[in-house]
Every structure is written in C-alpha cells, then in structure tokens.
C-alpha cells in the first residue's frame, strides 16, 4: 500500500505500511487535529493554526529520511518500524493548549502518552499488537530507554526529528524566518559511530544555524508576550476554579467537575476522560464560564475568549503596591491578576544528559575521532554568556490598571 499526505513544510509524505495508517486513523491520533501546536502563540501570529497532528506527521517523515541514510542500513526492519511509530505518536499525550495544560494537570504529556499507548481498552495497543509490535518498545524509545540508543536519539536529542520539524513548521506558520534549516544536507551526511548519531565537521555551520534559529524562535515566538499572557491568564483561570471548588461553589457547567475533579483531588485524569479534552472543549467550557456568578471566574473567562489577557509590563516596588491596591478596589484579587512570571532562559546548546537522555551533538573529525560539538563550535560555547543575560523585573496584570 501507499498513502500520500500533502504537507505544507515537507511536501509529499509517504506512508507504506498499514499499521501507520491505522494509527493515524485512530481516535487517539485524530484528537491531535483539535490541539494547536503552539497554544497561546495563535493569538500573536495569525497563521499559527497548525496542529499537533501535522507535527507528528512531519516527525514521522523526518525519521523516514534519516533511515534512508547509508549508515542506517544496518538497523533492522523491526527497529525501523518501531522508531517510525514512536515518532508518529510522540505527542499523542498532549493536552489542550500545548504545554500549558501540563502545569494545570501537574503531569507531563510524555506520561499521558505512555498511558495512551499501553491502554488495553484503547485503539493504539490493539493496533500495535495486531501488527506484532510491542507497545512497550514504543514507550521505551519515547522515554529514551530502548536498547538501541540510535532510535532514542532520533526521537529525542538536541538535534532530533521532533526539534527539526517543530522549528521548520512553527517558523513557516508564524511567518518568521529564524529557522531556515539545511535538513537535507544534515541527513545526507549523518553517520553512526559507536552507537551514536554523529555529523562530519563540514556540517557544523548548518548545525550552528539550527541552534541559533532555535534560540531566536524561543525569544521571539515561544516566549512572545501575548503567548505567555494567554498561558498566565489560563493558569489563573484554573486556579480560580480550584479555589471555588474548595469553597463548595456549584459550577453551572458540570464538565468542570467531570473532567477536573481528579486534579482537584491530586489524581491523574483517567485516560477515557483525558482523551475528550482538546482546545475546542476547553474554549467551550470557558465560554460557559463567562456566565458564571463568580465575577472573577467570569472575568478571566471573558479575557481568555476575547484575547484580553493579562499584560506583561515592568514595575518597581512603588508601582507594584499601587497596582495591587487598584486591583483590590476593583474586586480583583491580586492572586489571579498580578503574576510574576517564571521564564526559563533558553540556551543555545548544552552537552550531557537531561532526564537521562544524551543531549550531546557529536562531531566526527577527519581522523574518525568523535567529539562533542563544543570542541569545534565557538557558537556552542557562547551559552554561558547568553544564560548570564540580565532580566528586567516584569509582571502580568490587567492593562486597565497600568
């Protein structure tokens, strides 16, 4: 069989095996069509309406291109199939609004991905077993624990299929040109040495371009003040729901209790309920919450629905006291309306292990000696200077009290 997806970023993406089409057509994967890739960035960039689904198709495609490189010929057909499946399903556990829901649910999308893939009552495990694929092999790759380390690196490393696709896709749909990646050149020259994915010295400039593009995407897109404003307002909205629940408030929309009672009690959302949640469902709940009797919940819901998020501005100690007093006068508790953000400083590059996964980009020299990128690249060594960049104290609060 052969199926073709016409992709805006990669062109034609070919599917050659029935198992992939069955996974793609499952309700678990189709749900990703209803979850935008960039969450709050849709409000900053008009074209940023691409989904987790198209990103997963893109990751599958990039892995398939890596597997065509000569050094990957030694990998077994079984391993090639499972790494393609892992790439295809690597984001299957994402909740609504991208990574922001992880802060609400207090659980990572990777953990939900593992639960969805191994769920005996779901479609994924049944499809995999029908095609003689062990779901635990897929999960092992996603967790970086599969015996063949090459497969782990293809899906999760500093230079992996996931990062390559989301940088290309996000920059394309946001209309920015920070991530102009020479992907074909990198894939054409990739090698495998000592169970590591390595690149020859001649690819260093292409790798540096990729790393710098990623840094600029974080600064200009992923941490855009409108995107983070949506995230902060969404978290305040949910904190208000949690606090109202503790006070015994009766929500008009029963879905709040049905979906979120597990979070209220410090439990994981059951998979059958979690799979109902997507961006559309959450926005519908927010629209209903606009009519709630609690004025704070109603106001925060209205801000989320109508793109009137809390705004990011500088404020000194005097200004902070003034803003908090104004908020209290208007009946707006600063707990929900005055937020100090916790920005994670993006780095260009770091060697070593992160969460047990090797994040080192390896370069092979003309003598076939493999070393870290930091041994060759001046850019990779500038990370400490960028991380030492001073930040100005800024806070999120309503624009009407500025």
TrEMBL record:
CDD domains linked to this entry: HDc (cd00077)
Keywords: Hydrolase
Signal peptide: none
HD domain ranges (all copies): 52-167
UniProt cross-references to InterPro entries, sorted A to Z: dGTPase-like, HD/PDEase_dom, HD_assoc_2, HD_domain
Keyword Protein transport: no
An MF annotation (GO) of this entry: dGTPase activity
GO biological process, one term: dGTP catabolic process
Keyword RNA-binding: no
One Pfam family from the record: HD
Name recorded for this polypeptide: HD superfamily phosphohydrolase
Organism, as annotated: Mesoplasma tabanidae
